[in-house]
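Me: I keep going back and forth on a fold encoding question. No explanation is needed for now; the record alone will do.

Assistant:
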Amino acid sequence: MTTYRAAVVGCGWVSGEHIAAYKKHPQTEVAALVSLTVEEARRKAEEYGLNVPCYDSVEKMMQQEKPDIVSITSIPTMHVEHGLCAVEYGAQLVMEKPVALSREDLHRLTRSVTEHGTKSVVSFVLRWNPLFSIIRALLDDGAVGELFYGEVDYYHGIGPWYKQYEWNKTKAAGGNTLLSAGCHALDALVWFMGSPGHRSTRLCHPFEAGHLHGL
């Protein structure tokens, strides 16, 4: 059985979910962590009981560790540059949303993914939520008939208690409420409203129906 080596770039709170998933899956292992400082990466490694190399440079990590998969869990302003580096060094890509904060940067990354034949996925985790699975199954079975209109509501009560609140609420780092969290609702709408049996598995970015390649 093949074991895939995964690196996690960005050591904020969401990185822990990626680390836990890689540790739990029988075919993956955490190979390296990257953060703004080596000390931050080491603290995250210690928190999750990892004895792995820690870096403050994505490029240096890619050169030395050559991971098969890279999770981009850094601050959104750094997503595209970190993603480009991982792709250019041959890794497959897991991206936290938002993929990018501008359409131009989204296109840069999408072109690189396409040119390198990279497998990639945007982390719209609600696709694996049991409620979403049930709705999808009912739609595929034709239980509600032919769809002609869809509407999605999404509530995300972000406040000072939220660990990334200070930067997430700003336009410069968080973009806007749609990019930060409402994109989950848009992705749900795109997924549910496709034709039965042919609903797109593409993970929609809120700028447009453009996307990275589905894993």
Remarks:
- The domain at 4-122 is CATH 3.40.50.720 (Rossmann fold).
- DSSP finds nine helices and six strands in the chain.
- The CA atoms of residues 162 and 168 lie 9 Å apart.
- The radius of gyration is 18 Å.
